[in-house]
Amino acid sequence: MSKKKSWIDKLNDQKEPQIKLTEKAFADIPAGSKMFIATPQLIEKYINHIEIGRQIDSKTIRKDLALEHNADFTCPVTTGIFLRIVAEANYEKWQQGNNLKNIAPFWRVIAPNSSLAEKLSFGQDFLIQQLENEKNN
To answer: pTM of whole model > 0.70?
Structure first.
């Protein structure tokens, strides 16, 4: 029986980003659009560049990544999945003793009252605490 992958393993999967042509309308993406599919590492890299005290939503991330990769849109589904992978993996790193300064500040992207926050294994309190810490420093 194979061991279940950790979130860190999922983050470190070596997959290549892709651009796909949408054949039919998908979410907020019209048919015939170039849709960028990122990777967890690209999402993490983006998050690592968000300044302390600043919050960015997934729509902004999607727009920025599409522009950077010459696409019309970024896939909303995989972006949500990859945001969760980044959050869970970096929380695992923190639990393993990494300093908060050495992990991706995912709390700057995931709103505590969002549906994604509700799915996180560690709950919303960590997000709220980190946002408060940044506000008070």
So the answer is: yes
